[in-house]
Fold Ribosome production factor 2 homolog.
Amino acid sequence: MLRTVKPKTARSKRALEKRAPKAVENPKKALFLRGTSCSQITQDALGDLYALRQVHAKRFQKKNAIHPFEDASSLAFFSEKNDCSLLLFGSSNKKRPHTITFARTFDYKILDMLELCLDGESFRSISQFKTQKVPVGTRPLMVFAGTAFESPVPNGFTMAKSMLIDFFRGETSDKIDVEGLRFVVVVTADEPTTAENSDDPSSKAVLRLRVYTIQTKRSGQKLPRVELEEHGPRIDFRIGRIQEPDEAMLKEAMRKAKTNEERTKKNISTDIMGDKLGRIHMGKLDLSQLQTRKMKGLKRERDVLDEAETVVEEAPKRKKKVDI
C-alpha cells in the first residue's frame, strides 16, 4: 500500500483532490496487464478492447507474475498506483488457455473478479474487418440478449453484464447527440445447461460479444434507414472462475453521498410560470352542516313549510256524495 502523506505543493494537492471521493465520480479508468505467459490471441483481444476504451485506459506491455485468484494484492497495488478502478489481466496456461480476468476495485481494494476464457478458433480482431473505424472516445449502445442476464439470483452472466456495462460506460452526460451514436455492442448468452457446475470451462455456456457500426442511409422518408456492419472484435467467452464481492464492501460501494439538492416534496409542483402549486387531500364532506349566508329564502323552516304545502296540494281530493 502507498503511504498517505500531506501534500507539500499545489500540484500534489490538486492530484489528491482529484482522487478524493466525490458526489459525481470521474469516469472509471481501465488498466490492461499481462501475465508471464500470455498467448498472442489474448494479447490481440486485450489490444482491441483497449482500442474501444482508449481515452480512459492504460496498457502495460511488461510481463507481471500475478495470479489474481491466489493473491490479488498486486492488482490492488496497480489500481492505487495508477488510479484505475477497472483491471483486465490476460494470461494463458495449459488448463486455461486464452483467459482475460476482469477485476473491479473499491477504495483501491479488490471488490470482485470474473474470469472469461476466449475461444481462439472463433476470435476475429478489429484489423480483420475492413470497415470504417469508430472515433476515439465514442460511447457505444449496449444490447444484452438472453434470459441468463435477467436471472434474479446473481451468477456469472449477471456479473459479466455488470462488468461490461462498467467497462463501456465512459463519461456520464445529461444530453445525447444522435450523430454521436456510431457503434453498438451486442452481447448474447446461450441458455445455461446442466453441466454449468463442472470445472471444465469448455462445458459452460457461451457468451458472445459482437461490435457493429451504425450507418444511417436515405430511406425516402423522414426517418433514415439504419444498417449495422460488423466492426470487430468478434469474441466468444466462456465463464471461468468467479470471486463474488463481500456484502459489507458492496453495501459501502453502493452507498450514495448526501447532497444539498432539495428533495422532491409530495403533492407540491411548479408550473411553467414558476408558481408553486399544492394539492390537498380531504375526506368526505358533510354538506348538511355547511354554513351558508343568512338569507330568508335559505332558512330551513321555509324549506320545511314549502315541502308541507306541496304535500297537501298533491293529496287527492275526495268526491262528495250527491243525493238524487
Observations:
- The chain has a mean pLDDT of 84.
- Residues 300-314 form the longest helix (15 residues).
